[in-house]
Amino acid sequence: MTAPAKVPTARADILAEMEKMADAQLAVATYKDKSPADWVAGAFYVGLTRLSHVSDKPQYKEAMLRIANANNWEFKTDRYAPSIGHGDNETIGQMYIDLAVNMKELAKLDTMKKQVDTILAEFDNPTDAARRGWRNEEPRDKQTLPWWWCDALFMAPPMLTELSEATGDKKYIDAMDKQWWITTAKLYDKEEHLFFRDASFFDRKSPNGKKVFWSRGNGWVMGGMANTLSHMPRDYHSRPKYEALFKEMAGKLAEIQQPDGLWRGSLIDPEGSPWPETSGTAFFTYALAWGINNNLLDAAKFRPVVDKGWAALNVRIRPDGLLGFVQAVGDRPAASTIDNVQAYATGAFLLAGCEMIKLNEQH
Fold first, then answer.
1. Is residue 151 among the annotated active site residues?
2. Which residues 6+ apart lie within 8 Å of 15 measured at CB?
3. For tag attachment on the chain, is the N or C end more exposed, with fewer CB atoms within 10 Å?
4. Do 45 and 64 form a contact (C-beta atoms < 8 A)?
């Protein structure tokens, strides 16, 4: 695949590309005719929310409000997450909170807050698997860890931190903080500076006998950390720990980025997972650009990494405006082609684009 004649760097060009992608996603039947509230849609809505702050086109805020009203400003369950307490269902809350804050109508969050309060009550008293609605094949850690899979660190923590900021109630960020570090202690590999997807991957090996660290799984973590820190008070007691973790992971990611600007599905065994994969790359590009923009990462070191990632994503935008080479829903490295698109990758690209606008204007 040949590179585009010019990778967009000017605000107007990046914004036009983002708007084309968002419009294409909203035109997909699932989003045009329905208002899904699952994590796939939720990740797209997180990106759409950010786009609504940089675009002057009203259709994005209008779409967000339509989706929120259609879902009664509540978390919903689906076949992937059949319990309200499953963190995936909470992703959409980030959009609800942003809307309510900007509309100055925090009362719209009342029902969601009741759901959150119920969920927090279960954090210290996990119920059995059947009551929580977990599927039998999931790791046994599900019975003791609310966030037993690393993806959850994108889905729930930013929502809780943002809810704390919006309401002034510290219990939400404190509950988030406690569970974040429980999950991190379980899944973070201190030698490789990457997260296992869940406990079932501790002993798995890649085709070349290496540990399996899934690209999108770690992308969820990095994106979730950026979103969480964006709403965390500067003087919050454990903020330095998040920043240290962010920097440590960023350093590793800079080391293992591939020459074409992508990160492979299996992060430390790119030869065993040779396919282009854009969803993990989009989240990494977003998070690293955010890190530079927020003075956590050195621009001289990380700007080339971000630029390569951004260029690699642009190469893989299809004529219809959607991002191709997106690994399908899953929990481990897998093949992808130009035909593979997913709403969560659209969301990640929109997040990356917003940070690229800031990056090109500030650095």
1. yes
2. 54, 55, 353, 357
3. N
4. yes
Domain boundaries along the sequence of the chain? 11-362
Candidates 312, 340, 343, 315; CA nearest to 328 is 340
The two structure tokens encoding residue 106: 């925090």
Instruction: For residue 12, give the 3-state DSSP assignment.
Output: helix
Give residue-wise pLDDT tens across range 253-288.
999 999 999 999 999 999 999 999 999 999 999 999
pLDDT tens digits along 313-349: 999 999 999 999 999 999 999 999 999 999 999 999 9
Given the residues 38, 88, 98, 151, select the one marked as catalytic: 151
- Domain with residues 11-362, CATH architecture: Alpha/alpha barrel (1.50)
Taking the C-alpha atoms of residue 352 and residue 309, their distance in angstroms, rounded to an integer, is 10
Q: Cα–Cα distance between 156 and 87 in angstroms, integer?
A: 5
Position 5: which residue type?
A
256, amino acid identity: I
β-partners of residue 214 are 266
Amino acid identity, residue 179? Q
Instruction: Please report, in angstroms and rounded to a whole number, the separation of the first and last CA atoms in the chain.
Output: 29
